[in-house]
């Protein structure tokens, strides 16, 4: 009998110390409510002590001050219990708290605090710029959080959490998650934590689709080079002039959003080439991407002009062509592959531009007499 009592007491101590696995958030049990006996229930949530951490939130994941409307790329969570979309918010009015901004409920961040739901107009919204960062909800329990969990404030051990009742906060100090349920603060030992994936990743921009219906074309006549040819005699003569010049066929790609200016990777895209009557899409090729991509090819143009020149005449010979330019919007897919079999994909838009010189030709442009020449005697 004594042995059974000792085993029972040991089991209670083990649970109260926070051991145990993580249940799925959708089935998280409410501990300490509805007649259940709590395992060393924490006091009502409060401001938590500061603790300096080595790393801050990644550069593409930012807390943005709320200024009256929902910012682009705000991190969202569908609350199936309340049947509404919520957005992750944080506030420092009572220390450090995270909760939910719900547009239909007004310009407030709602968060659990002191056994009830609190709200404030002074808050920030979590933004994943361009949806570039790979975010995930990871199961955890008893105040623990995985590596790279998203913190609510700098230097606080308060993290973004949720369960089936919606968004809330996780306190390492109080070893629990706190969520508002029907207007009251409820604490839970099992929950999910918002985590951002870090580490080296191969970046590929692929599935490029050009919208040729919105292409903008331009053209202009250009002079590639000029030279002169002279006849300083009294008889007509034939002159042959060779003109040679190099032009560059250019292809450039850029992204509409400047936030991706530091992205390095590989672009897999087809080139836009002029076929003689219009622009065509060629085979896909790989091009280095450093905030954008470019590739070019040099073309040598050689033309020979033969012309009979009048006596004492100078003529200008020119190599000319037509420069064509096209700018086309495109859609693509940016993929970050961390090597774990779970690549992160982001839709993106941008523009492609190509330039080429066509119709290169050479000819006499103008001739004029040479001044101050001696007379020709027949």
Automatic annotation (TrEMBL):
Gene3D superfamilies: Proaerolysin, chain A, domain 3. Residues 1-21 form the signal peptide. The keyword Signal applies. The lineage of its organism: Eukaryota, Metazoa, Chordata, Craniata, Vertebrata. This is Charged multivesicular body protein 2a. It holds the Pfam family DM9. Keywords: Signal. It comes from Grus japonensis (Japanese crane).
């Amino acid at each position: 009998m004594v042995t059974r009592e000792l085993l029972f007491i040991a089991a209670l101590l083990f649970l109260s110390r926070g051991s145990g696995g993580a249940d799925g958030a959708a089935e998280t049990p409410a501990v300490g409510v509805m007649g259940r006996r709590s395992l060393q229930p924490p006091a009502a949530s409060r401001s938590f002590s500061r603790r300096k951490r080595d790393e801050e939130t990644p550069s593409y994941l930012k807390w943005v001050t709320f200024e009256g409307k929902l910012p682009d790329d705000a991190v969202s969570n569908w609350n199936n219990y309340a049947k509404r979309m919520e957005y992750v918010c944080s506030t420092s009015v009572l220390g450090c708290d995270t909760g939910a901004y719900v547009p239909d409920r007004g310009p407030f961040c709602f968060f659990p605090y002191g056994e009830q739901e609190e709200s404030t107009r002074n808050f920030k919204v979590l933004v994943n710029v361009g949806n570039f960062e790979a975010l995930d909800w990871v199961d955890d329990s008893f105040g623990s959080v995985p590596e790279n969990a998203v913190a609510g404030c700098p230097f606080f051990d308060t993290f973004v959490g949720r369960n089936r009742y919606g968004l809330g906060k996780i306190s390492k100090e109080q070893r629990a998650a706190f969520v508002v349920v029907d207007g009251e603060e409820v604490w839970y030992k099992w929950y999910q934590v918002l985590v951002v994936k870090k580490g080296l990743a191969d970046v590929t921009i692929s599935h490029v689709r050009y919208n040729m219906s919105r292409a903008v074309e331009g053209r202009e006549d250009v002079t590639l080079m000029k030279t002169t040819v002279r006849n300083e005699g009294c008889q007509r003569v034939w002159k042959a002039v060779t003109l040679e010049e190099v032009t560059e066929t250019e292809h450039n790609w850029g992204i509409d959003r400047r936030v991706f200016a530091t992205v390095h990777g590989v672009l897999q895209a087809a080139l836009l080439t002029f076929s003689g009557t219009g622009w065509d899409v060629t085979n896909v090729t790989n091009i280095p991407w450093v905030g954008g991509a470019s590739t070019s090819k040099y073309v040598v143009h050689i033309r020979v002009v033969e012309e009979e020149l009048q006596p004492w005449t100078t003529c200008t010979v020119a190599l000319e062509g037509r420069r064509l330019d096209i700018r086309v919007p495109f859609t693509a897919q940016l993929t970050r592959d961390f090597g774990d079999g779970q690549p992160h994909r982001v839709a993106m838009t941008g523009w492609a531009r190509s330039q080429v010189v066509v119709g290169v030709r050479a000819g006499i442009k103008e001739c004029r007499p040479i001044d101050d020449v001696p007379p020709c005697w027949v």
